[in-house]
Amino acid sequence: MTEHSEPLDVQKLQRRLAEFAAARNWQPFHTPKNLVAALSVEASELVEIFQWLTPQESARVMDDPETAHRVTDEVADVLAYLLQLCEVLGIDPLAALDAKIDRNERRFPAP
User: Fold this and answer.
1) Are 49 and 61 in contact (CB under 8 A)?
2) pLDDT, position 2
3) Looking at the whole model, is its pTM more than 0.85?
4) Cα atoms in the 13 Å half-sphere on the side-chain side of 21
5) What pLDDT, on the 0 to 100 scale, is given for residue 4?
6) What is the reported pLDDT for 76?
7) How far is residue 39 CA from its own chain's centroid?
């Protein structure tokens, strides 16, 4: 794990991802279509880990270090592609989530 002197934030992570891609000249491939496809693949790899687990087993998935590592890596991959997609499309992911929670609170009021 990389040591950071400052707290991580979404914009900083998006910059790191963009710099990583730029250093490898990958930007031409980071189209919305390709990023959505990659996001779907990585989400499916996360699903694969849980596919045949019982609900009880899935609740304990982080107890096994090897499985925990796989889950953590796939979560990171999903988040990386989602952040890259947001960057390409000009979406502020935190603002989008905040607005969605607001809509859901109105749509599904608590009893």
Assistant:
1) yes
2) 55
3) yes
4) 20
5) 60
6) 98
7) 8
Q: How far apart are CA 1 and CA 110, in angstroms?
A: 40
Six-digit token string for 58? 């899935």
Residues in the chain with pLDDT < 50? 1
First to last CA, the chain: 43
**Residue 90 identity:** G
Q: What's the token pair of residue 36?
A: 């959505």
Three-class SS of the chain = CCCCCCCCCHHHHHHHHHHHHHHCCCHHHCCHHHHHHHHHHHHHHHHHHHCCCCHHHHHCHHHCHHHHHHHHHHHHHHHHHHHHHHHHHCCCHHHHHHHHHHHHHHHCCCC
Q: Give pLDDT, residue 8.
A: 84
Query: How far is 79 from 29, CA to CA, in rounded Å?
Result: 18
